[in-house]
Please model this.
Amino acid sequence: MHGTQVHDTQQPVISVRNLWKVFGPKAARVPGSAELGALSRRELMDRTGCTAAVRDIDFDVAPGEVFVVMGLSGSGKSTLVRCLTRLVEPTAGEVIFEGEDILACDPKRLRDLRRHKFAMVFQHFGLLPHRCVVDNVAYGLEIRGVAKAERTKRAKEVIELVGLGGYEMSYPDQLSGGMQQRVGLARALAVDPDVLLFDEPFSALDPLIRRDMQSEVIRLHREVGKTMVFITHDLSEALKLGDRILIMRDGALVQIGTGDELVAAPADDYVRDFVRDVPRSHVLTLKWIMRPPRDDDPLDGPELGPDVVVREATRSVLAAEKPVKVVRDGELLGIVGDEEILSVIAGGSDS
Amino acid sequence: MAATSSSPVSRTLPRVHIVVRDRGRIVLGILAVWLLLWVFLRGMHTLALGGAQLTSVHHWFNNLNDVIGANRNSNPVFLYFFNYIRLFVDEFVIFVQSVIAQPSFGRPLPLIGWLGVVALVGFVSYAVANIRVAVLATAGFFVLGLQGLWRESMDTLALTLAAVIISLVIGIPLGIWAGLSDRFARLITPVLDFMQIMPSFVYLAPLTLFFLIGPASATIATLIYAAPPVIRLTAHGIRSAPHDTVEAGESLGSTRTQMLTKVLLPAAKRTIVLGVNQTIMAALAMVTIAALIDAPGLGKTVIKALQTLDVGTAFNAGLAIVVMAIVLDRVTTAAADRGRRRPNRIVLLAGAAATVFAIWLSYTYLWAAEFDARLDIGSTIVLWAGEATDWVQSTLAPVTNGIKDAFTWVLIDPLQALLADSPWWLVAVAIVAISVVIGSVRAAIVSAVCLGLLVATGLWSDGMTTLASTLVATVFTMVIGVVVGVWMGRSQRADRVIRPVLDAAQTMPAFVYLVPFLALFAASRFTAIAAAVVYAAPVAVKIVADGIRGVSATTVEAAVASGSSTWQTITKVQLPMSVRALTLATNQGLIYVLSMVVVGGLVGAGALGYDVVAGFSQGQLYGKGLAAGIAIVLLGVMLDRLTQAAANRTQRGGSR
Ligand SMILES: Nc1ncnc2c1ncn2[C@@H]1O[C@H](COP(=O)(O)OP(=O)(O)OP(=O)(O)O)[C@@H](O)[C@H]1O
Ligand SMILES: [Mg+2]
Model:
């Protein structure tokens, strides 16, 4: 498994260990059994009538990180993210949130966590059709028992933040899809959660609006700095938003890594297929294309960091007379010349 | 292109035809044998029973009634259960009556007089719906006063309100429970189905056994009939709350109560209000019928008039029922459709003040309490309607009698002769055999059991007479259903025009339909059948129209493209493909017709309907009336099961 684990110094916000969710009769026997656990989706269905939507998944989410979960339709993304707050009850495994085992919580504690620590944005918005925008946004505060004046004030702030000022008294069916999702976003932000969960929030929107909303999330992340778990089946969205990306297939984890890691070093053909159409120069960084310095390399060329994206380095590399040095903390890591750059831009083979 | 796309049509349709046609041949064969035997066996073993004749079963029921009557105040079940329910319901009804309908609290008049009620109705309509229906409601209630039927109308309204309030208090929580729990939903659905297939009429007799003749029985019968819609629709509304919304509510940490009150109920509100609408309409219909067991109000006026064939009075009171039905229906429908518009708060406050003032006036001053008799237009309506009837009956007599006699002679008499004059065992064997052929073995067993029990009620002969009327009426209902239904199914325009009329017709209590037919055709079996057809046709038409519309547009297009004429498209594609809708329409048509043929006992339909009615009014016929009620249930169950089985069978046949 190719996984970059979070820095040891940082306590993860969420750690998931050996998480299973099996739908179907007598689901609990599947995670325990090595034999059943190894079956393919089809075989498992034929043998037991069960579907393993999440199989034995491990990952950590660091504070402030945007963690993206990606996979094809039916790969278990929604189920996985719902297991985190037990909207779907996991069959086996552990979900640790800030050191507390969520699966061991009693209903009251769970409700408290949902009220204060997590908030979720849904694919089809899930707004309350009988309430206007303010009351939708204030819902989370209302059920916590926040007084009316206070929650309305807070709701208005958040509505302003997501750029919906002026629509406070509108009803969901009077808003466009993009605006409705802004309401969904505002509702999640209003409760000031530690973690925001997004389940394909922009899939129902058209491409232009989707791009707006993605920028909106990036902006909000910069402004409020929340930890986010973001589900999508769109790779460009994943690359745009995600600090790290988890790729799922048939409920199992295939690879975890940063965008450039997935593009540069796909774990298998499934991932390779996923990243095939990505413009590599937009994702790869110099560290993936540099070569070791040779003795005859002139070492007086310009310097660049290893995490500079190829596209951004192109101009300076091609303009420079000498090959560019890739340097971190004064240490020479490698060399990038015209040849390396051009092979990426021309869509050359894997490095 | 046309040939290939129409080939699936021509390949599957003939097979359905053959299956249907084969079964049709066997049924014809059975009928032929039956006819042949009838020629020889006519008049034997017919189990006929004279009007005042009783069997031991009827005596036994009479006894049961006496025994229960004697022990009503000593038997613990009655003492601690039924009597309490009766007392509670009675008290409640009397309380509501004393507010708007009956003299009370030592006053010669109810607490709130006409002005107060009219103002209150207008205000409530505005508060829950909008100004338009408020005006309509106010005007409608004013008309009730003009008709000279204020007190009767208020009695009907009081009884309806009492029954509706109890229905909602019981029904909405049950509906919520059924919406939240699959277990409970599975448990209650068959019960609701059963409550609704019973002709409303037949609850009455057994209920009087436990709750005596009077308001308690009337209210409880109404409750049984009126509660199912609100239970069903509440459950449905809760179940159809959008999944994402429910999940969002959950993800924010709502408790179960918060979930219910802030997410599910608001999302289901419109559906629940529609359920309330249906409950109110059902309650009104039932309250008028409950006049048969002495429920006060407009229904009683209609029944008395029908029994003396006083069309004028029946018309006036029937009109009042229609007015009340329209007002109640419009107000509740508008309340459901109101959406988010809230009434203006200032107008609301002013209206409340004015209403309170009007109530105070009507409490204090006689002119505002009792409708001024000088404004009465009711007697004019009675007079005119009576004269119009006389005129119609004398001038149109050749026409109407011609129609009536032709139908009676060609259809009703022969069928009745076949059913009622055959030996009972021959009829039973024939019906069971037909059940096997067009239904299923299960349906045949149900038929056999029902027929056996029908013999046991001692009312076989009356049962067969009623069955004959029911079948004739159902045939006509289906003819209308298919003709109008196909028209509506094929033409958007026709649908738009006709559907509201059907909707309106369906909200009318059954009684109302008797009046015009009584005017046209005087008291006869034909009159009852004609009224039943008109009562049942809207349901059948709607189901057929929906079935026709449900036939896939591509199939129809393919048929047209391959050169079918309109007639061929209808008979070879649209009707065969909506065969399930047709059987369903027949099923519903039968149930409606059956409940109406019984009400027709009041206008000369005789047989079971008459037995039931007579049982309520004459002590020594009580047992027979009760047995007749049971016989109607038996016929209903048999016909329902049989048509259901036929529907399932055609569906399987069609999809094969
Ligand atoms: N309540 C359920 N009962 C049974 N099976 C379920 C249930 N929910 C999900 N599944 C199954 O689990 C698998 C994963 O579903 P999930 O909704 O998590 O996929 P997804 O990755 O979110 O797909 P999509 O991109 O289409 O939303 C699917 O095979 C689905 O059929
Ligand atoms: Mg999903």
About this structure: The mean pLDDT of chain B is 83.
